[in-house]
Each structure stands twice: as structure tokens, then as C-alpha cells.
Design brief:
The complex is a heterodimer of chains A (about 375) and B (about 425). Chain A contains 17 helices and four strands. Chain A is mainly α and about 375 residues long. In chain A, helix 2 runs antiparallel to helix 12. The longest helix of chain B is centred in the C-terminal third of the chain and has 21 residues. The interface between A and B is large, with 68 and 56 residues.
């Protein structure tokens, strides 16, 4: 469905066919965007809701693929940054003067930026740890943040609303335009553009922004320094890359993405409700799901992360909708195949297959397919 | 490959623009020939009620029981003539106890139903809170937290967790097991369920100058040995639990093993008859359970009737969800009939009829319910029971439905 970019590593000298390839690729991206823009005119609210959930996964997965795939730092803390971003948005945009919870009454648009900033700062604060550790050690250290988040969610009731009730985030609006059923009645081709459709366009905009910025980072100097640090820290330092800075930067950028995904999560749920145990909306399971997206998509590939999110976040949702419609997987009791179970099998199997047969993930498969079209010989695999 | 992709994408665009867009929601509201106003979820022959349950997640047994109770009620209700000349139909979906799945399934089921006869799981109810208010859909959550009552569309069938604990403590005091000024321990799961129960013990403690030693746990903790040991050190005279059945087992076993042997009080969700076959079985004698709904094999005419119908219709192992699911149906039936008398079967009509329902009777499956005061629990009465392996359903009633004087005075969080 989506196109995959060429490997970010230096290329062989360009051939005339490359320009054609570039043109076609751009056209394909645009076509995809047009389809996505048109979808709310055809899909019902439930499907739009599922699509929005995939976009949340997409934004989060792009952030994680940058830090894990590009900078080579395993992070299991992504769910924590989701909680941080969601809480920051809710607190900043919440009405001031509520006696139960703290709110600053800021404009929702500003609050969204604030949420991203807060998450980025928290990521920076963790940078001293991230800079000193590597691989599984960093994974375990970052996992501690998820438990910190669980404790924070339970105890900082003035901010999170507590596990018992949570709190309602302010509905999103941009320059006074509400993304709810209120405000001006808009119809497009006879379709009323209400909350589900408006939120779809908002999330699409955020996802496109996230995507473009990440592509820019990967193809630019920043991305090169991250990859240098990933491949060999000593060599990177010799070439003049500040290893600590590159690592801290990667972690902060990835946290910012997590924060954005968190703010989208509370908007999607219409509630910020901290988890009651370590599994939940901001729990270990979410961190692992994001990791699964990144691995299936191909470590370090931005479009791959989107496809991974489509599979991991989308599959349970789509199967549940189909099962309600068509009576698939509607068994009950022990040993019944259910949408949630089936999708766990699928993405579990996908991870195993990727690790065994194609460590580059779906991105590498896509790359091979497209390059066979436009090149005489496939490029040398690294 | 690229070109094919491009072609495919462009073709998709063309196809999409060629086919008609989704139809705008034309409200099928109006009045039928007898002057009854109808809206979403009501046709000339049917009233559709929604069931969002857990058939595949952690609460699949309870979810299945409640759903089967709902189905039994619908069968009986239709056999008795239905409402306004219409039969009740149930539209069931399984969310697997996942809030995200429920959030996506809701817009799919919402246009088809008048209201929800079952909404299972506190994370799900929390996620859908805003939707219920926006769509004005009355829903009966299978969660009994009084915190949910700030939503006028939520109909809680039974006593809330806080009141269960207040009634239970008053029963312990009446039995002379605790006295004013004692220290008691309260072990609670940090969340909607446990915290709401804690409100109850805090209120009761203030009334009777008790000291409450609060211990916060998560639903995934399985061993409460150190918790109970700590409470022993604090010299508690009783332990209150708002925990899972497995945790209850661990707590009562430790209570016995340490020689602490203080009375233990648990509310409805803390006990499961399976505990009688667990290693903790020998320690259950100290446990008192307070609940507002009856177990499957309760010794009540209506419960026996439901049990007999269940055995005729289903093969699964029954649980307390069955009579509860039936009871919720009965309440819905009362509300539907009231709405029919008002000649208004729209969602607004249901919400208005709910407010007028002051004594919904479920033949004692649940105490009589009064929904006329939004924000206030519909009943404050509970049964007190003790585990008893020889009794049907695993518990023996030690006190029939009662309401403690303290429970009368208690002000629920959203009570006006």
C-alpha cells in the first residue's frame, strides 16, 4: 500500500532512471494522501475511529523507530511518554479553578505543543542514563520509567485525576474551530463533517507532520550522526559527532513523538485515566506493541513504522469491527479464537518471520521490490 | 512495481469518487399510529438494546453469565408481551475488556440501539462516559462505583461499593466484632473499584472514630502475606477487603496462618465460590461478604426460577452474573413500560422514564431501586453472608437485605 524510501545510506552515482523513480514515488505518496483525505466521505464513524487509532500508533512508532532503529538505543519507555504527553495536554488545557484537579485553561492548540515540549524535556532528563547505557541495559533502565508512570498516575491525582475516575481532557479546537459536534455545520459532498471526521483530519495532519519531520531528520545531518553513533561510537567521535549529544537528541525527539501520541490518545478516548496495574493504556503492553510495530516495519524505516502501526494497532480494531458485522471469531469462553487473540498471533508470527528471514523488516522487502524495477542490479545489502 | 502502485492508487481514487458517499444519518424518528414517539433503536415491531460485554478477556466468565441473564430476561419479557406491542432484541458485541476496542465498536453499535442493558468493565465505562452523555444513551454498567453517577445516563443496578462497605462495617459492629476507637485495616486495589470502597470505610471510621490503616495494591498482586503481616503489626481488629477473589484467598489464609484471626469483610467482587476449593478454603470462616445482588443459587423464588431457566437453556457453568443480568433486564423492562405509558420510546423518553422510576422491583434479586435522584445510588441495602461449602452457591445468608443507619447518612460523591 505505501511506498518505501530508498535506504538512507549513500547511493551509487545517480542514473537517469533515478529521477523517474523519484517522480513516481512522489506521485504515489500524493495519491495515497488523496485517498486518506477522501476516506471520511465513505467510511462510517467506527472505521474512522479505528483509523485514528492506527494514526496514534503511527506517530508513536515513528518516534520509536528513530531512537531504536536510527540511533540504536533500545527504549521500552515509550508508554511512559504517552502518559506524560496525555497528562500534560489535559493539565494545560483543563479549565482553571477546578477544585479537584489542576488546570491552566490554555488554548488546546498551545496545550498540544506544550504536551510535546513536556515529553521532550522528560526525554532529555533521562538522557544522562540513555547516554551511558546500551542495548538491553538501556531497555531495562527505560522500563523503570513505565513503573514510574504507573506510580505517578496513581498518586498525582491533582494532575491525572487518579485511577478511580480519571479526568476529561478539553475537547480540541484550533483557532476557535472545534473538533467536536459543536460549532459550524459543515457538509462535504452531502456528508456531515462531525467529530469523527474532524478528528480524522486533525490526526491525519499530525501524522503527516510527524512523518515529514522524521524523514527530514533521517535524511539530514542529524540522521547521519545518529547512524554513526549506532554503528560505531568511537568512529563517530573521530568524525566529530558528539556522541552524548546525538544520543540525548535522539531520545528527546523520540519522547516528543511519544508525547504527541499521548495527547492524541486522550483526545481519542475523551478521557485521561491512569492505569490500575502495569498493563493498560500506558502500560508495558503498549511499550511492547510499539516495539513490535518498529520491528515489523523495519528498524529505522519511517514508512515501515507506519505500516507496522497499521498491522499492530489496526488489526485488532478491524477484526473486532468485522466480527461484530459478520460474526467472525465470535466464540466465547476458553480456547475461543477472538479478534484480540487472532491479531496477537498474527503480529507475533510477523515478528518471528521478520527476525528469521528479513531482519530489515517490511521496509527492506519494499525496498527490494521497488529497486528491482528501477535498477539493473539490486544494491549491495549491508 | 512503482507504476502498478501508482496506477492502483489512482484507480482507487477514481473508484472512490465514482461510488456514492456514505449516507448522512437521517434520523428515523417520528411517531407511530398509536402516538408513541420513537427514535434510534426502535422500529414498529422491535426495541433493540445493546450489550457490550467481555466474552474473551479477563472477565469472560462474568461477562458470559451477565449476557446469559440478559438473554433469559429478554425471552421472558417478550413471552409476556414485550412493550408497546414491540419485542425486545439484544445486539451483542464483545470488546474483550479492552477500552480501545470498545471505543471503536461503540459508534458501530450506537445507531442501532435504544440503550445499553449491559456495559461491562470499568475501563470501558470510563472510556465511553463522554459518548453516553453526547448520545443520551441510558446504560447499565457492570461496575458499581458511585463515582459513575455524575453521568445522568448511567443506571447502576445495585448498591455501590462505598455503601456495601459501610453496611458491612455496621454489621460487624452490631455483631460486637469491632467497637468505636478500634484500628481496622483496609486493603484496596488502586482504581475505580477499590478506591470507591475505601470511601466507605473512611466515612464509617469518621463516624465511629476508628483508625483506618490503608494498604494500596494493584490488581496483579497475588501474595498479600506481607500486607497482612503489616496489619498485624498495626494491631488491627478487622480487615476490610476490596480486592480480587484470589487476593481475598491470600489475605484470609495469611490471617489464619499468622494467628491474627480477625474478622475479614469483603464486598461483592471479593468472593468467588471457587475459593471454597482453593488452599484458602479452611480460612474462610472469618470472612463476611456484603453484596446487593444474590448468588446464582440463592434460596429465593425468583432466583430459583432464573436458575431453572438457565439450566434448560445453557450448558456453561453459571455464576452470579446470571441473576444480576436478569435483574438489570427487569429494571430495563420497568423503564421501558414507563416510557411506553408516557408514549415516548425515544432516548430522551427513556432518560425521563428512568428518573420517574422510584421502585423498580426485581423480586429481591436486587433490592428495590429508586432512580429518581440523579447522583444518588438507587439502593443502600445489602445482604450479609458467610462462605459455606455445604450451601448452594457457596454462601449462607446471615442477614437478609438491610440498610445501616450510617448508610442513610452517607453522602455519595455526586449526590445533590
Amino acid at each position: 500500500m505505501s511506498e518505501v524510501d530508498a535506504p538512507p545510506e549513500p547511493q551509487a552515482p545517480p542514473r537517469p532512471r533515478r529521477n523517474l523513480a523519484k517522480l513516481v514515488r512522489t506521485a504515489a505518496w500524493l495519491a495515497l494522501l488523496v485517498v486518506l483525505l477522501a476516506l471520511p466521505l465513505y467510511l462510517d464513524a467506527a472505521w474512522l475511529k479505528a483509523g485514528q487509532y492506527m494514526m496514534i500508533g503511527g506517530v508513536g512508532a515513528i518516534g520509536l523507530t528513530l531512537v531504536v532503529g536510527q540511533a540504536g538505543q533500545l527504549s521500552l519507555a515509550h508508554a511512559f511518554f504517552l502518559l506524560a504527553g496525555g497528562t500534560a495536554y489535559t493539565v494545560l488545557s483543563g479549565p482553571a479553578g477546578d477544585d479537584r484537579v489542576i488546570g491552566f485553561g490554555l488554548d488546546p492548540g498551545l496545550s498540544l505543543l506544550g504536551a510535546v515540549a513536556v515529553a521532550a524535556l522528560l526525554g532529555l532528563a533521562f538522557a544522562p542514563v540513555a547516554g551511558r547505557l546500551r542495548g538491553i541495559y538501556l531497555g531495562v533502565a527505560s522500563l523503570a520509567l513505565v513503573f514510574l508512570g504507573l506510580y505517578f498516575g496513581q498518586s498525582a491525582e491533582e494532575l491525572t485525576g487518579g485511577t478511580s475516575t480519571g479526568r476529561t481532557p478539553a475537547p480540541f479546537s484550533l483557532f476557535g474551530f472545534p473538533f467536536t459536534n459543536d460549532g459550524p455545520e459543515i457538509t462535504l459532498l452531502g456528508v456531515p463533517i462531525r467529530q469523527a471526521e474532524r478528528t480524522w483530519y486533525l490526526f491525519l495532519l499530525l501524522t503527516v507532520l510527524a512523518f515529514v519531520i522524521a524523514r527530514g531528520a533521517v535524511h539530514g545531518r542529524v540522521g547521519r550522526s545518529w547512524r554513526a553513533v549506532r554503528d560505531n561510537e568511537a568512529a563517530a567521535a573521530v568524525m566529530g559527532v558528539s556522541v552524548m549529544r546525538a544520543k540525548a537528541g535522539a531520545f528527546a525527539v523520540s519522547s516528543a513523538y511519544g508525547g504527541l501520541a499521548g495527547a492524541m490518545t486522550v483526545l481519542w478516548f475523551d478521557i485521561l485515566k491512569p492505569d490500575e496495574s502495569e498493563f493498560g493504556t500506558y502500560g508495558i503492553n503498549v511499550s511492547i506493541a510499539f516495539l513490535a510495530m518498529v520491528i515489523i516495519g523495519g528498524l529505522g524505516s519511517v514508512p515501515g513504522a507506519l505500516v507496522g502501526a497499521l498491522i499492530v494497532n489496526g488489526l485488532p480494531q478491524v477484526l473486532a469491527l468485522y466480527s461484530a458485522d459478520l460474526g467472525w471469531f465470535s466464540g466465547t469462553g476458553d480456547g475461543a479464537l477472538t479478534p484480540v487473540l487472532v491479531s496477537s498471533f498474527v503480529y507475533g508470527a510477523a515478528i518471528v518471520l521478520v527476525v528469521l528471514f528479513e531482519p530489515g523488516g517490511l521496509a527492506a522487502i519494499g525496498r527490494r521490490l521497488t529497486q528491482r524495477r528501477f535498477r539493473r542490479q539490486p544494491p549491495e545489502e549491508k | 512495481m512503482k507504476r502498478t502502485h501508482l496506477a492502483a492508487a489512482l484507480a482507487a481514487v477514481l473508484v472512490l469518487s465514482a461510488c456514492s458517499t456514505k449516507a448522512g444519518d437521517s434520523g428515523s424518528s417520528g411517531s407511530d399510529s398509536s402516538g408513541v414517539k420513537t427514535g434510534k433503536g426502535v422500529t414498529a415491531t422491535e426495541v433493540t438494546l445493546g450489550v457490550m460485554t467481555d466474552k474473551s478477556g479477563v472477565f469472560k466468565n462474568l461477562g458470559l453469565g451477565v449476557t446469559q441473564g440478559n438473554e433469559l430476561w429478554a425471552k421472558d419479557f417478550n413471552a409476556a408481551g414485550g412493550v408497546c406491542g414491540r419485542q425486545v432484541k439484544l445486539e451483542e458485541v464483545d470488546h474483550g475488556y479492552k477500552a480501545d476496542t470498545a471505543k471503536t465498536l461503540y459508534p458501530q453499535i450506537e445507531p442501532k440501539v435504544l440503550g445499553f442493558v449491559q456495559l461491562l468493565g470499568s475501563p470501558v465505562v470510563a472510556a465511553l462516559k463522554q459518548n453516553l452523555a453526547t448520545d443520551k444513551t441510558v446504560a447499565a454498567p457492570a461496575s458499581w462505583s458511585s463515582e459513575l453517577l455524575d453521568n445522568p445516563y448511567v443506571m447502576i443496578v445495585g448498591t455501590t461499593y462505598d455503601l456495601e462497605i459501610i453496611d458491612g462495617l455496621s454489621y460487624l459492629q452490631e455483631q460486637g466484632l469491632i467497637k468505636d476507637g478500634d484500628a481496622i485495616g483496609h486493603v484496596y486495589i488502586d482504581g475505580e473499584y477499590g478506591k470507591n470502597g475505601l470511601r466507605g470505610s473512611q466515612f464509617y471510621a469518621k463516624k465511629h472514630s476508628l483508625t483506618v490503616k490503608e494498604v494500596k495494591i494493584t490488581s496483579t498482586d497475588s501474595d498479600l502475606t506481607n500486607v497482612v503481616t503489616g496489619l498485624k503489626g498495626a494491631g488491627v481488629k478487622a480487615i476490610v477487603l476490596t480486592t480480587t477473589p484470589a487476593q481475598t484467598g491470600s489475605a484470609v489464609a495469611t490471617n489464619k496462618a499468622l494467628g491474627l484471626n480477625v474478622p475479614v469483610l469483603g464486598n461483592n467482587p471479593t468472593f468467588d465460590p471457587a475459593l471454597l476449593k482453593s488452599p484458602a478454603a479452611g480460612a474462610l470462616d472469618k470472612l463476611t461478604i456484603v453484596a446487593s445482588s444474590v448468588p446464582f443459587s440463592a434460596d429465593l423464588p425468583k432466583a430459583k426460577d432464573v436458575a431453572a431457566k438457565f439450566k434448560a437453556a445453557y450448558k456453561e457453568t453459571p455464576n452470579g452474573g446470571v441473576p444480576y443480568g436478569y435483574a438489570v433486564g427487569e429494571v430495563w423492562g420497568a423503564v421501558l413500560k414507563k416510557a411506553c405509558d408516557n408514549k415516548d420510546l425515544t432516548r430522551d423518553g427513556i432518560a425521563a422514564a428512568l428518573k420517574q422510576t422510584t421502585s423498580a422491583s426485581t423480586d429481591n434479586l436486587v433490592a428495590a431501586l429508586d432512580f429518581s435522584k440523579p447522583g444518588t445510588p438507587a439502593t443502600r441495602q445489602v445482604y450479609a453472608a458467610t462462605p459455606d461449602a455445604s450451601a448452594e452457591g457457596g454462601v449462607k445468608y446471615v442477614k437478609p437485605l438491610f440498610e445501616a443507619p450510617e448508610a442513610k447518612e452517607y453522602v455519595a460523591p455526586h449526590q445533590k
